[in-house]
Structure formats: C-alpha cells, structure tokens
C-alpha cells in the first residue's frame, strides 16, 4: 500500500510497474496475470524471474537507538548509521528525557550495544 500511494503521487515507470506486478503475483495471481496480459505479454507472469533486490537501496542512513536506564526503556533517538559508540553514548546521556530519569543518581556503567541500545546502570 505504501508503494501504491507513492506511485499515485509521484508516478512510476514501465519497468517499475512490471517489477511491482512480479512482486504482487504470488499474492494476487489472477489479477496480476490479467494486468500482465494488458501490457502486451503473451507468456504468463509466473514464468518471469522474480526481481532481485539491490542491497544498496536497502541501507538506512539513520538508525533508532533505545536508551535503557536500570533495565527499563526510557527514551529513543536516531543517529547516523556510521556513528561510533562513544558519540552514541554522549548523545544518549545528553538527552532531556534521560537526564530526567538520571536526576540525583550516579551512573556506574554505560553499555552500548552497537546500533541497537544504550544501557545505563546506576548505583543503588
């Protein structure tokens, strides 16, 4: 549905439309077969090769990092894909929501799980 909405707004090329039909064919075989024939193809769409994904298009530029304080998730934020652990740690500790939960507590340890989570452990 996201693809269809984007295609309605921005338009798509013939090549993109054909790839979309190939992807949709296993889920809506009769409908895609009819649309494929309307494009002028004689052979069945189900005899076509399935589109191969290009990994270059699937890489995100940013990622979402969760912040845990004493085992409970308290905040999330986005960082660039290439951010190092030290920068992620500094961003996490400087966030207002994290400061609120750390108010009056002493941090004993900060663990950064690459690309996923920052876990802050406080002294009890």
Protein described:
- This protein is α+β, with helices and mostly antiparallel strands and 124 residues long.
- Helices cover 38% and strands 24% of the residues.
- It contains 5 helices and 4 strands, in the order αααββααββ.
- The protein has helices at residues 2-10, 14-24, 29-38, 85-94, 96-102; strands spanning 62-69, 72-80, 107-113, 117-122.
- The mean pLDDT is 91.
Task: Supply the key terms.
single chain; 124 residues; alpha+beta; Ubiquitin-like (UB roll); 4-stranded mixed β-sheet; rod-shaped
Spatial strand arrangement across the major sheet: 2-1-4-3
| Strand runs, count | 4
The averaged pLDDT comes out at 91
Major beta-sheet overview: 4 strands, mixed
* Spatial separation of the terminal alpha carbons: 49 Å
Helix content: 25-40%
Structural class: alpha+beta
The helix count comes to 5
* Order of H and E elements: HHHEEHHEE
Strand content: 15-25%
User: What is the CATH topology classification name of the largest domain?
Assistant: Ubiquitin-like (UB roll)
Give the name of the CATH architecture of the largest domain.
Roll
Q: Report the C-alpha radius of gyration, rounded.
A: 24 Å
**Name of the top-level CATH class of the largest domain:** Alpha Beta
Indicate the low-confidence ranges by residue numbers.
Answer: none
Shape: rod-shaped
| Number of discrete domains | 2
